[in-house]
Amino acid sequence: MVAIFAVVNFSTAAVTEQKFSLLFANNSFELELFAKEQLAQAVEVIRSQHSANYEIHLDAHTDNVGSVAYNIDLSQQRAQSVFEFLTNAGLEENKIMYQWYGETKPIAKNESEKDKQANRRVELTLKIFHWNSVQELMSDLSNKPFTKELTANVANKVKTQSGFELNIPANAFETEDGKPILAAKVTINIVEALDKESWLRHGLSTISNQGILVSGGMFKIDATIGSQKLRLKDGITMNAAIPAEKLQEGMSLYIMNENSSTNIKGEWVNTQRPVLSKINGKELPFVKIDTNKLNEIIEMKRSKKYTMLAIDTLKLSLIPAFPKLKVAKPRKPKVPLKEEMKPVISNVRFALMTKSQRNKLMEKEYEKRMRVYHFDSMNYERRLVRFYQAIETYQNALRDFELNRKLYERIAYNEKTKFENNKDTYFEFVKLSECIKKINEMKKVVANQHFTSSDQLRQLTASNYNTKRVIHPLTISRFNSQMKLVNDAMKQLGCTFDTIVKMDIYKAMWHLQRFDKDIYNYVADLETDLYNQRSAAGLTDINELRNAYTAQLSSMGWINIDKLSKQTLTAKLQIERTPDSQVYLIFDNSNTVINYFGNEMMLPENENITVLGVNVIDGKPFYDIKKITTSKRPTKLNLEYKEGSLKDVKDAIRRAV
Question: Helices in 317-354 by DSSP H: which ranges?
Answer without folding.
Answer: 347-352
